[in-house]
Specification:
Number of strands: 2
Order of helices and strands: HHEEHHHHHHHHHHHHHHHHHHHHHHHHHH
Strand order of the largest sheet: 1-2
Membrane topology: Multi-pass membrane protein
Radius of gyration: 44 Å
Structural class: mainly alpha
Protein name: dolichyl-phosphate-mannose--protein mannosyltransferase
GO molecular function, one term: mannosyltransferase activity
Largest sheet: 2 strands, antiparallel
Subcellular location: Endoplasmic reticulum; Membrane
TPR repeats: 442-475
C-alpha cells in the first residue's frame, strides 16, 4: 500500500518517488535485523536478534550436548540457509527488494512514456552552473547553492519567487567568504554521519549473515556464543547510538534525499534555486528542529526539578572548612545524578561521607551538600542556604531565557509566514518582493518591466528591460519587450529594429512576428501605394528561422508588382532578386539535408522541415534543379519588368504591346505549370491571423492586367481559371465565354 501511494505521489509530482528511498533508509538504519539461530532438520531451538548497532546482545543457538560434535554443513547448505533467512525469516529484506523493484519499474515506465527523463532545454539565465567553463567554479557554486537552500530553511528572511541569474553570483575563488557557509553545512552533515557509525550497520548485517550460515554448529562444551557485557553500559550506548542513527535517517531520508534530484549533483536542472523544491526537505528540517527544541525543553525541565523543595545533591561545596578540595570534587562527581539519588556501587558516597569527618548528619544531610529547606543546619546558619537560593534564582532565569528564545523562534517563523502569504496575494506584490530580494536577476527585472507596462509607465518599463539585457546579454526575451515599449513610446523605427532582432529568439519569435505584422499593416494602410512597407514585411518572412519562405515570396512579388505600377524598374529587380536569392539558399539547405539523411529519406522529405509549402507540386527529377516556386517566379519576372518599363515611359498597360505579349506568353506557360495559380503560403510555422492564406502573386498580376483590358477574352478566361483554382465562383469564366463569342461575332 505504501509503495502504491508513493507511485501515485510520483505521478502527481516527480519528487514523490524519493519517498521510496526514505522507506528503504528507515528499514536499513532503524529496523533491527532478526536472525533465527538454528535451522535444525525438525525444529528451531532458539532465536537471535541483532539490533541495529548492537543494541541487544546476540544469544547463540544452543542444542543439547552431544557426544561428538556434528560435521560442519557444506557451503551450499549454508548458502541455502542464508537465502531462506532473507526470504522467510527477515521481512525487511523482502520489503527493501520490493521497494527497489517498484522504483526501477517507475523509472522504466517514465522512460518509456517521456523518452528523456532530464530537462535539457535551459539557458544560463535559468542555471548558470551548467554553463560555467571552470570545474572549480562549478564545484564551489554548487556547494554554495546547497548552503543557500539550507539557509532558506533556517533563516527564511529573504524569499523570492525567482532566483535566476544573477541573483546569487557564482563563486570562482577559494578565498570567497561565502565558502564558509558551505563548509559549515557539510561539517554538520559529516558529524551526523560519523556519530551514527554507519559502518556498524555493515558489521551487523555481516554478523547476522554469519550467524545464519553457522547455525547448527555448536561450541564445544555447550558454551554460549555471545559474551556477557555490562547491561547499563550497553543500554546507555544503545540509546545514544539509536538517537544518532535516527538523526541520520532524518537527514538522509527526509532532508538530503528528497533534495538530491534538484541539487545539480547527479545532473543539471533548469532551476538555480526554487523555494518550491524545499517543501519536502522542510519535513526533515522541522523534525531536526523539533528534536533540538525538545532537548532544550527537557534540560530546562530537569533544572526546574532540581530547584524544588526536595533538594538533590549539587556541585556546591560545603560550608567553610567542611571538606577538602579533593573530597569536595569527589562529592561533586557523585552528585551529578538527575534523580537526586547518590551513585552506588563505585564507593563515591562513602568517600564523600568520609571527607565530612563522619557519617550523615542528624538532619539527613551529607557533608559537601546543602541541606534541605527547614533543616536544623539551615536554621543554624544561612551560608549554604544563601548559596543555594542564588543558584535557584540563576537557574530560574536561565529556564525563563530558554523558553523566551524558543518562543522568539516560533514567533519569527509565524510572522515571516504571515508576511510571505501577503506577498502572494497578487502577481504585482509577488514580483515586487522578488525585486527587493533579487534586484540583479535578469528574469526579475523583465517581470518588473512587464508590471510597469501594465501600469502605463513605458519609460520605467524600458529601464527594467534594458537592465535585464545588461545583466545577461544572452537573454533574448527583453529585446521583444524593448521593441514593443519603443513603439508604444512613439519611436516605431527603433522598435521595429528591436522586434526584428527578437525574431531570432524562439521564445518570443511568434509574438514578435505578430507585432511586426500589425506595424507593417498599419504602415501599408497609411501608404497603400508604397511598396517599401510590403517589401519590408516580405523580407522578414524570408528569414530562414521563420520557415515562411512561400508566404515571403508571395509578399515580395506583390511588392514587385506595386513597384512596377510606379515605373520603378530597379525596385522590381531588387524585389525579384530578393525572392530568388532566398529560394537558392533554401535549395542549398535542402541538398545538405538530403545528403545528411540519405537520398531516400531526403526525397521523402523534400524541402526540409516545413520550409516549402505542401500546396506546391513536389519536385520530380524531370523538373530539373529549380523548384516550382522558382520556375513561377522566373515566368512572371518578364511581365513585371515589362509593366515597369511601360509605366516609366508613360504608356498605358492596355496600349503596350510588350506587356500584352509577355502576359500571353506567361499564360501559355501555365498549361505546364498549373501550380502557379495556387497560393504558395497555405502553411506557416508562425501563422498570422488573416495572412496564412494570402492572395498569390499570380492572382494580383492577372487582376492588374485584366482590369486594364476588360474586353480581352483570353485574360478574362485566365482570370476565371484562377478564381476556380482558389475555390472562387465560375461567374468570371461565363463572362469570359460571352466576351469571347462577342469578339468572334464582331470578327465575322
Amino acid at each position: 500500500v505504501a509503495a502504491a501511494l508513493v507511485v501515485a505521489a510520483a505521478l502527481a509530482k516527480e519528487i514523490g518517488i524519493t519517498m521510496l528511498g526514505c522507506m528503504i533508509a528507515a528499514d536499513v538504519v532503524l529496523v533491527p535485523v532478526v536472525v533465527t539461530g538454528s535451522y535444525d532438520d525438525h525444529h528451531t531451538t532458539q532465536s537471535d536478534a541483532f539490533c541495529c548497532g548492537g543494541a541487544a546482545a546476540a544469544v547463540a543457538a544452543a542444542a543439547a550436548a552431544a557426544a561428538s560434535p556434528p560435521a560442519p554443513p557444506s557451503f551450499l547448505r549454508r548458502f541455502y540457509r542464508l537465502v531462506s533467512w532473507a526470504v522467510a525469516e527477515e521481512p525487511k529484506c523482502m520489503r527493501i527488494a520490493a521497494l527497489a523493484v517498484v522504483g526501477v519499474g517507475y523509472v522504466r515506465l517514465r522512460s518509456w512514456v517521456a523518452v528523456d527523463q532530464l530537462v535539457r532545454i535551459y539557458r544560463k539565465v535559468e542555471n548558470p552552473i551548467a554553463f560555467s567553463q571552470s570545474p572549480l567554479e562549478r564545484l564551489l557554486s554548487t556547494g554554495h547553492l546547497h548552503a543557500r537552500y539550507a539557509g532558506l530553511l533556517l533563516w527564511p528572511l529573504h524569499l523570492s519567487a525567482d532566483w535566476s541569474f544573477e541573483c546569487v553570483p557564482m563563486i570562482s575563488r577559494l578565498s570567497d567568504l561565502r565558502n564558509a557557509l558551505t563548509a559549515a553545512l557539510y561539517t554538520y552533515l559529516t558529524v551526523v554521519l560519523i556519530a551514527a557509525r554507519p559502518w556498524g550497520l555493515v558489521t551487523t548485517w555481516c554478523r547476522a549473515a554469519a550467524a545464519v550460515m553457522a547455525a547448527g554448529q555448536e561450541e564445544s562444551g555447550g558454551k554460549k556464543a555471545a559474551a556477557k557485557t555490562k547491561e547499563e553500559e550497553e543500554e546507555e550506548e544503545a540509546l545514544r547510538l539509536w538517537a544518532a542513527r535516527w538523526r541520520l535517517f532524518v537527514v538522509a531520508g527526509l532532508f538530503v534525499g528528497p533534495f538530491v534530484p534538484a541539487s545539480n549533483v547527479l545532473f543539471y536542472v533548469g532551476t538555480f534555486i526554487g523555494e518550491r523544491l524545499l517543501y519536502f526537505p522542510s519535513i526533515g528540517f522541522c523534525l531536526l528542529v523539533s528534536e533540538l527544541l525538545s532537548g532544550v525543553l527537557l534540560w530546562a525541565a530537569g533544572d526546574n526539578e532540581a530547584t524544588g523543595d526536595t533538594q538533590p545533591p549539587t556541585r556546591v561545596a560545603a560550608a567553610e572548612g567542611a571538606a577538602t578540595a579533593d573530597s569536595a570534587s569527589a562529592g561533586a562527581r557523585a552528585s551529578g545524578q538527575s534523580g537526586g539519588e547518590a551513585d552506588t556501587g563505585d564507593g563515591a558516597s562513602v568517600g564523600v561521607a568520609a571527607a565530612a569527618g563522619g557519617p550523615a548528619a542528624a538532619d539527613g544531610t551529607i557533608a559537601g551538600q546543602c541541606p534541605s529547606r527547614g533543616s536544623s543546619a539551615v536554621r543554624a546558619g544561612g551560608g549554604c542556604a544563601a548559596t543555594r537560593d542564588r543558584l535557584v534564582a540563576m537557574r530560574r532565569i536561565r529556564t525563563a531565557a530558554t523558553y523566551a528564545v524558543i518562543a522568539a523562534v516560533l514567533v519569527f517563523y509565524a510572522v515571516r509566514t504571515w508576511q510571505r502569504n501577503w506577498d502572494w496575494r497578487t502577481e504585482e506584490a509577488l514580483f515586487e518582493s522578488a525585486g527587493r530580494v533579487c534586484p540583479t536577476s535578469a528574469k526579475v527585472q523583465l517581470n518588473l518591466g512587464i508590471l510597469q507596462r501594465r501600469r502605463g509607465d513605458q519609460s520605467a518599463a524600458l529601464r527594467h528591460f534594458r537592465r535585464a539585457r545588461t545583466i545577461e546579454p544572452g537573454y533574448c526575451e527583453p529585446g521583444y519587450w524593448i521593441g514593443i515599449s519603443l513603439v508604444n513610446s512613439g519611436d516605431p523605427q527603433s522598435g521595429v529594429v528591436e522586434l526584428e532582432s527578437a525574431l531570432g529568439c524562439k521564445y518570443v519569435a511568434a509574438d514578435a512576428l505578430k507585432a511586426l505584422h500589425t506595424i507593417y499593416s498599419v504602415l501599408h494602410s497609411n501608404s497603400p501605394k508604397d511598396p517599401n512597407h510590403v517589401l519590408g514585411w516580405g523580407r522578414l518572412l524570408l528569414r530562414p528561422e521563420l520557415r515562411q519562405l512561400a508566404q515571403g515570396c508571395d509578399t515580395v512579388e506583390r511588392a514587385a508588382l506595386m513597384a512596377a505600377q510606379l515605373g520603378d524598374v530597379q525596385g522590381v529587380a531588387s524585389a525579384v532578386h530578393l525572392c530568388k536569392e532566398a529560394l537558392q539558399q533554401q535549395q542549398l539547405r535542402d541538398e545538405l539535408l538530403v545528403g545528411l539523411r540519405g537520398r531516400d529519406t531526403g526525397e521523402a522529405e523534400a524541402g526540409g522541415p516545413g520550409l516549402v509549402s505542401d500546396a506546391l507540386t513536389p519536385v520530380s527529377p524531370a523538373d530539373g534543379p529549380e523548384g516550382p516556386m522558382q520556375r513561377c517566379l522566373e515566368a512572371r519576372r518578364p511581365v513585371y519588368h515589362a509593366i515597369a518599363t511601360a509605366v516609366s515611359l508613360g504608356r498605358r498597360l492596355s496600349d503596350s504591346p510588350r506587356v500584352l505579349a509577355q502576359m500571353y506568353k506567361y499564360v501559355r506557360q501555365l498549361d505546364t505549370m498549373p501550380y502557379c495559380r495556387l497560393s504558395s503560403s497555405s502553411s506557416s510555422a508562425y501563422p498570422l491571423e488573416g495572412t496564412a492564406t494570402a492572395t498569390p502573386a499570380h492572382m494580383h498580376l492577372i487582376h492588374t492586367i485584366q482590369s486594364t483590358s476588360p474586353e480581352d477574352p483570353w485574360l478574362q478566361a485566365e482570370w476565371g481559371r484562377t478564381l476556380n483554382a482558389v475555390g472562387r465562383t465560375q461567374r468570371q469564366s461565363n463572362i469570359a465565354k460571352v466576351k469571347y463569342k462577342g469578339n468572334i461575332n464582331k470578327t465575322s
